Amino acid sequence: MKKVMLIGYGAMAQAVIERLPPQVALGWIVAREPHHAAIRQQFAGAVAPLSDPLQCDQTPDLVLECASQQAVAQYGEAVLARGWHLAVISTGALADSQLEQRLRQAGGRLTLLAGAIAGIDGLAAAKEGGLERVTYQSRKSPASWRGSYAEQLIDLSAVHETRIFFEGSAREAARLFPANANVAATVALGGIGLDATRVQLMVDPTTQRNTHTLHAEGLFGEFHLELSGLPLASNPKTSTLAALSAVRACCELT
Fold first, then answer.
1. Which of 35, 65, 101, 133 is buried most, with the most CB atoms less than 10 Å from its CB?
2. How far is CA 77 from CA 9, 81, 103, 130, in A?
């Protein structure tokens, strides 16, 4: 039986917990102290709540981050330095180039999950044959952008048609929209980099889906991919497919 440590106890973490394969056991959850009683109650004491991953005196088969870019910055380096396998869903944390360097040099094994986008394997292959231009678009409902930096750029309550409210690099998008633009970072890290990848963020009052559009060109040719995913009911900022990507990482342990 493989044992997983989960960093996070929010909407995505709950979606992962509900879908864990039977051959994978949840051993530990890293969460803030106020959540510890709820964790003990939910799992009848079978899962240990932790305030820090290093409080674990065993070796998890996988440490799965389902929390935030802040959690990656806070715990990632120490987890990897122990030689553990860390899978990251909040890939936008690597927009901090110094943090990215520390994580990649810390040891252990670092896996960047695909999250809510497909085609990362195609990007990686295209990079070997001359990937030159990559553009990523994210189109979500006003509810999905509420509470984010988007509210400083556009009046979300007054939008009546699809509007682009941000254009820039993937690095800028990941920094400014830490809860909304991890896919931009994933695309960039799998392709031509955070500074060269161009990003457009859009609000669409007519949709209830999170639509991700990826266009890549180069010496290999070009490809265009669009994925229209449903957000988690408990968190409209997060695509269901992102949670399923984390579940898939657990399935691959067996």
1. 65
2. 20, 6, 5, 32
Q: Report how far apart, in Å, the C-alpha atoms of 20 and of each of 27, 44, 183, 215, 253 are.
A: 12, 17, 23, 33, 11
pLDDT band at 175 (very low <50, low <70, confident <90, very high): very high
Q: 202 near 163, Cβ under 8 Å?
A: yes
The Cα–Cα gap between 86 and 184 comes to 20
Binding region: 116, 182
Q: Render 37-99 in DSSP notation, one character per residue.
A: HHHHHHTTTSSEEESSGGG--S--SEEEE-S-HHHHHHHHHHHHHTT-EEEES-GGGGGSHHH
Annotation: binding site for NAD(+): 116, 182
| Catalytic positions | 212
Mean pLDDT of the region 153-164: 97
Which pLDDT does position 236 carry in this prediction?
A: 85
Domains and CATH numbers, the chain: 2-115+241-252 (3.40.50.720), 120-237 (3.30.360.10)
pLDDT of residue 137: 98
Residue 198's DSSP bridge partners are 135, 169
pLDDT band at 254 (very low <50, low <70, confident <90, very high): confident
Both tokens of 79, joined, read 């987890």
Global pTM reads: 0.94
Residues listed for the chain: 254
| CA–CA dist 246, 207 (Å, integer) | 25
